[in-house]
Amino acid sequence: MPDGWQWDSTLFQGSAAFYERGRLPYAPGFAETLATAVGLDGRGRLLDVGCGPGTVLLAMARCFTEAVGIDPDEDMLAEAERQAKRRGVTNARWVTARAEDLPAGLGEFRVVVFANSFHWTDRDRVAATVFEMLEPGGAFVHMSDLKDQSGESVPQPQPPSPSHPAPPNAEIRELARRYLGPVRRAGQGTLPNGTQNREDLVLAKAGFEAFERHVIPAGQVVERSADDIVAWVFSLSHSAPHLFEDRLADFERDLRALLQEASPDNRFAECLPATEIMTWRKPQGER
Which domains does the chain have, with CATH numbers? Predict the structure, then answer.
């Protein structure tokens, strides 16, 4: 865990309803890239750890005989189940659990994926457990927006000659700081130094090998409404609705006023971020 921080169940409390609308999608084609990278053929089982509302699992389920999503937030899993029914995905199931609860009697998997979730876990412990849960030659997959060497997301380029301005992200961050304080919030605690990176060191220690990295460029410009931007803010752990307590309505009012000032018609343009997929393998000879 990050130094001085302990996970608690309020980390994403109230955020599930905002995910689908607020979060920008992974780069188009990520599912095909991942399927090719790990040689999927429709067989085997997928485990998505910290699956949230099922964003990655539902895109990948067709590549497996069964897909299992785990998350400690029951609202996230309820949203995932709704999305699965809407999309006609019938080979998925959902389990309320933390990564630290694994193996949780879930059996063996061909692929275990962490999409923007591994940094919230006790990484050494979880990596060692996942190593045992994978079949020989199975893949540990880490997915996120493209990161720089410090572990920070690579800034998105400004949309070329946009018909609408980019969201005023710096001003939004400053507004949240005025309400929540200068130190990043996370559940009931704070993350003064941010979250962890250098997954490669953790996974090498656990016995994984054959590292591969795939970057899927995006660059597609998408139009976003003020409602989309508000949903994005509330989908984030450090500005989850519960953090504002009885000032939530005031914050949303000020946020919408800020967006109105930045774009009088409440329309914005953003470039989709590139997606980074990193894979490691359990050696074929390991059981």
Answer: 16-153+160-282 (3.40.50.150)
Contacts of residue 169, Cβ cutoff 8 Å, sequence gap at least 6: none
Closest CA relative to residue 167, chosen from 50, 76, 254, 256: 256
Q: What is the pLDDT of residue 149?
A: 54
The β-bridge partners of 111 are: 46, 139
CA distance 31 to 60: 6
pLDDT for 8 equals 83
Please report which helix (H) or strand (E) contains residue 177, including its range: helix 169-180
Average of per-residue pLDDT across 235-258: 97
Instruction: Please give the structure tokens belonging to residue 136.
Output: 């020989």
Question: Which band of pLDDT confidence, cut at 50, 70 and 90, is reported for residue 160?
Answer: low
Element (H, E) at 228: helix 226-234
User: In this predicted model, what pLDDT tens digit does every residue of 58-70 receive, in sequence order?
Assistant: 999 999 999 999 9
What single-letter DSSP state applies at residue 166?
A: P
Beta strand ranges found along the chain (DSSP E):
45-49, 66-71, 92-96, 109-115, 134-145, 185-186, 189-190, 209-216, 221-225, 267-271, 275-281
Integer Cα distance of 49 and 117 in angstroms: 7
Query: What is the rounded distance in angstroms from the CA atom of residue 70 to the CA atom of residue 51?
Result: 6
